[in-house]
Write a structure and sequence with these properties.
Number of domains: 1
Helix content: over 70%
Mean pLDDT: 81
Distance between the termini: 46 Å
Strand content: under 5%
CATH topology: Growth Hormone, Chain: A
Largest sheet: none
Order of helices and strands: HHHHHHHHHHHHHHHHHHHHH
CATH class: Mainly Alpha
Low-confidence stretches: 186-196, 391-407
């Protein structure tokens, strides 16, 4: 009973840390236009700086996971929170593309301490295997929860006090993760530190086709998500809609992200993770098709935000669940760090290419076509991921039935 209570506090702390770190990152798109107006750097240059920050966040994931596995998550979260606050406060004073890129890169490294890979990996190692998918869904809801609260609040702060004051206020929130880090010391004892067996698990995963298929789908997820959170305000501006719609749209993304993430966490306790993943990517593709075909009115934009929000972080529970199911929990934080590294390579491309396409063509049409194509491909790839205890869809269709096997 005591361990269950401590585990509950640990999950709550993980949700809080993710809400702070991911929430502050996902509202950065609201600053693109005012930052460009204040500095004159150009949307493409600013988008590249944001993209480098996303890439740095990804590249630091495996190292952060390994440090947490070795030294404990509490120290890593505390150090990263302080660095994140410092970087956020430096953004308004970064007057060149190079300095802005450096600040956002360091900010990306700092935010790794509140990444789903570290938090889900750390907590999953302390819960029963059958609960890991559900726990991943609950923790994953922390990011959209932060976005839900911070998106309209940030838009309001920008309107009332200016973008610099809003940025400084958002940066100060990073310090809120410091007391939450203590829960990772007080929670139930971590699994035994991995020795040679843990290293062998990592080597096995890196040599596995299934692991890289999971990485491929999560790469697509990264491109989708960070194109949206970085450029959805720009899409809305091109539609001629009021700026307040951007805040509402990002908030709805966050709200329905919570429902999708938690809901899918329960779904995969009874149903195939790989098929659930395929359905989520197919739903994204359908959402893009419907959005492109519809008139760009405020209700349509908000409905699109709801639809995409449902599938947004919902891919995390089956992704984390498949990695844990295939390779165990001993080095889950490290392995999810690798998965999120590839996710952030996709995030880099989503953030950067969105700015490049807009600057060169005057619209985001090229990015929507890329998004749609990759969503369809990811749905297909998902069905080929091996899942212990469940037959893949392709195997179920092609495997010959033995005599006497019922149809």
């Amino acid at each position: 009973m005591e361990n269950e209570k401590q585990g509950g506090w640990l999950v709550a702390a993980a949700v809080g840390v993710l809400a702070v770190t991911m929430g502050t990152r996902t509202v950065f798109g609201l600053f693109l236009s005012p930052l460009n107006s204040a500095t004159g750097l150009g949307i493409a240059a600013i988008s590249l700086a944001v993209a480098v920050g996303q890439l740095a966040w990804g590249l630091a994931q495996p190292l952060c996971g390994a440090l947490a596995d070795r030294y404990g998550a509490a120290r890593v979260i505390a150090a990263g929170s302080l660095l994140g606050a410092a970087c956020g406060m430096a953004v308004p004073f970064a007057g060149s593309a190079a300095s802005l890129t450096l600040v956002l890169a360091l900010s990306g490294v700092a935010a790794t301490v509140g990444s789903p890979s570290l938090l889900v990996g750390t907590v999953s190692a302390r819960v029963a295997p059958e609960r890991r998918g559900m726990v991943a869904g609950i923790i994953g809801a922390g990011g959209p929860l932060g976005q839900l609260v911070l998106a309209p609040a940030t838009q309001g702060l920008i309107a009332l006090a200016g973008w610099m004051s809003a940025m400084l206020s958002i940066a100060a929130l990073s310090i809120a993760a410091l007391p939450l880090a203590l829960a990772f010391r007080r929670g139930p004892g971590p699994v035994a530190r991995a020795g040679n067996g843990g290293a062998a698990t990592v080597r096995k995963a890196l040599a596995s086709r299934g692991f890289w298929l999971i990485n491929a789908t999560f790469f697509v997820c990264g491109l989708h998500v960070f194109f949206l959170v970085t450029h959805l305000p720009g899409v809305i501006e091109l539609c001629g809609l009021p700026a307040r719609v951007s805040g509402y749209a990002l908030a709805l993304l966050g709200l329905f992200n919570i429902a999708g993430s938690i809901g899918v966490g329960f779904v995969i306790r009874r149903h195939s993770m790989q098929r659930t993943l395929a359905v989520l990517f197919a739903a994204r593709a359908l959402g893009i098709v419907l959005f492109l075909a519809a008139p760009k009115t405020e209700p349509v934009v908000l409905a699109f935000s709801v639809w995409m929000g449902i599938t947004y972080m919902a891919v995390l529970p089956p992704t984390a669940g498949l990695v844990g199911k295939l390779y165990g929990a001993e080095r889950l934080a490290t392995l999810l760090g690798v998965v999120f590294m590839l996710h952030q390579v996709g995030a880099f491309l989503g953030s950067w290419l969105g700015g490049v396409v807009l600057e060169r063509t005057g619209s985001y049409d090229g990015m929507w076509k890329l998004d749609l194509t990759l969503a369809i491909l990811a749905a297909g790839v998902s069905l080929t991921i091996p899942e212990p205890g469940a037959r893949t869809a392709t195997a179920a269709l092609s495997a010959p039935r033995s005599a006497g096997t019922p149809a």
